[in-house]
Design brief:
Two copies of one chain form a homodimer. Chain A is globular, with a radius of gyration of 21 Å. Chain A contains 15 helices and eleven strands. Chain A has 359 residues and is α/β, with parallel strands linked by helices. Chains A and B meet through helix 9, helix 10, helix 11 and helix 12 of A and helix 9, helix 10, helix 11 and helix 12 of B.
Chain lengths: 359, 359
């Protein structure tokens, strides 16, 4: 990773962008890159994709890295990993592995991104499974970091402990808070609640708190995510994905309902005009684009995932997150934190579920 | 159940109410009972609880059934089941078992309610585990029925199939629609997504659709609950509980945010007055009290669970749901539907997870 060190010495952050990924490809990624470059004068971008698609873009701090293939949103992981070896997604991650970029960003197929990232970059020592972490707004006006969000559908207690350690590292970097609070997502606050695996996770997390590796506050429930009861909420990927998407569905329903009600008649249309600043503030606060850009944690390199349906505003947000993580040495911080918790992670014996991805 | 038949012949619906349950006990349950009796002239109530707490209530269609004990919200299931044999919760369910009431309603501790209901009433033939089903508003202006919501934290594919059959019976009664649509909650629409258990559940549900027992439309995601993509969404109790509580948390955050923004200054206070009808409509549509009253399905008797923190409006809603279910012969409909699907349920072999509750 000598390349990264040199770049960092020169105060430049280099991001590799999978320009072909997502539902909209270059129509979204290129305008986002343009705006990002304007805002961050110390950033460079490696635009990865098919040369003809990227031909129209020119910026002194951007360079095209050609890749002939594209991972489709519905490609099976196996196809993305084995058949499309020159995909824009893979070449972008390869830039991180080679030290040409400090982080990669893609709006492509989550499963493929995770598999390729894991195959090329490998997991950090002590981590069996990478996790996807994102931030959601909370009632305290801050953000709650939730992980995992879909990378792992069956998690053991040991995985949940690893997620807690990685999430703590992420938040301590982003919030500059040494001991962010961690909650275990459960269906009741009492330690006796939940499945056997969740109860065991609670024991491991309490042990980690006892040894000073985590600021574990106990079980939290679904409503605590938006209440902001903990800085970090840990759960398996199935549960996290459902919680996230259910929230998106509810938010859309509310927005749709407000639009419908405010356009019902002349009086309500007038009301909408009067209430516009408040509605605008609500929309801004609820705007999931502001929270776009999930971190793939636990890898030997930084990779960020944008929502597949992201528009340019949202994709730019994912670029910013990658930039923040890279400029704050997220990777080193995660590594340090894991090294510190190593005895604990080693104590927690591997289980039958802990199988590596095919690689 | 001769008592029920006679009562039904006389067009009376009798509900047994656990008046002591919930966070607020009689302060909430009695006013709710009063209003309910006023609205439903063909209903009778058995008010179960400590005689002194119920002494102030008098109505010609209400009768006190004394119970000396109360299940506390934090009582362990074991304590509620074995130590408090004269609890208001248990005596209320006993009324259903004895045929003195067609349904029981309680705002008490969910785990205790499920355990006692299961112990006293037993599960229906073909059902290994009862489930908790509730309705959530959707963008189509209708309701999505979700189950399970917390009764079962580890579910096999067979349990999910049973939930689908029971949920279909519930919705076909409530909506008078013979073939409501069923979706399997997953983290992607493709059949290859999710854990092995979820994939196997998908296979069982497809087989059930093939034999005409279910109108299964495939996998749905979290956002589809509020979109209204399926009439019934089936999931394990852990996932369902998290999805429900996460939604409650988000809804509270939005309401809190609107209050904060509208009270920020003189102009926004004016805006709030102008926008009042719309905000009122939003509040009404989002009001979780309107959706209070979850059905415990799969038992040989009707039991409804109110939110523990319910106020009188919400608790009355739970009474209404129990009334609707009883007057529409929900129990017979569920039983018929299960009998029809019996060959299918029998085909799906029991698995190691399928352990009965201690009884």
């Amino acid at each position: 990773m000598a390349g990264v060190a040199v770049l960092h010495g020169a105060c430049m952050i280099v991001l590799a962008v999978d320009c072909m990924g997502g539902d909209h490809g270059v129509k979204v990624t290129l305008p986002a890159c343009q705006r990002f470059l304007e805002r961050y004068p110390d950033a460079r971008l490696l635009l990865v994709g098919q040369a003809e698609a990227l031909a129209g873009f020119a910026h002194e701090r951007a360079r095209v890295v050609p890749a002939t293939e594209v991972v489709a949103m519905d490609d099976a992981v196996e196809v993305a990993l084995r058949k499309k070896k020159d995909s824009s997604m893979r070449v972008a991650i390869q830039q991180v592995k080679d030290g040409a970029a400090q982080a990669a960003v893609s709006a492509g197929n989550t499963g493929a991104l995770m598999a390729i990232a894991r195959y090329l970059l490998k997991t950090l020592e002590g981590i069996e499974r990478p996790a996807i972490a994102t931030q959601l707004p909370n009632a305290k006006g801050a953000a709650t970091t939730v992980l995992d969000l879909g990378a792992n559908v069956d998690c053991t207690a040991e995985h949940l402990l690893q997620f807690a350690v990685m999430g703590s590292a992420l938040v301590s970097v982003l919030k500059n808070d040494g001991q962010p609070t961690v909650g275990l997502l459960n269906i009741g606050e009492e330690a006796i609640k939940g499945s056997d695996e969740i109860k065991r996770a609670g024991e491991l997390l309490r042990a980690a708190a006892g040894s000073g590796d985590l600021n574990f506050i106990g079980n939290v429930e679904g409503n605590d995510i938006f209440k902001g009861a903990a800085d970090i909420v840990v759960c398996d990927g199935f549960v996290g994905n459902v919680a996230l998407k259910t929230s998106e569905g509810l938010a859309s329903m509310i927005v749709g309902f407000l639009k419908e009600e405010f356009s019902r008649g002349i009086f309500t249309k007038f009301a909408a005009i009067v209430a516009y600043p408040v509605l605008k503030a609500l929309q801004r606060r609820m705007d999931h684009r502001r929270y776009n850009g999930a971190a793939l944690l636990g890898l030997r390199g930084l990779v960020f995932k944008s929502h597949g349906s992201a528009d340019a505003v949202a994709f730019e947000q994912a670029l910013r997150r990658a930039y923040d993580a890279a400029s704050n040495q997220l990777l080193d911080r995660v590594r340090e934190r894991i090294a510190h918790a190593a005895p604990l992670l080693a104590d927690s014996a591997p289980t039958p579920l802990a199988q590596p991805l095919p690689a």
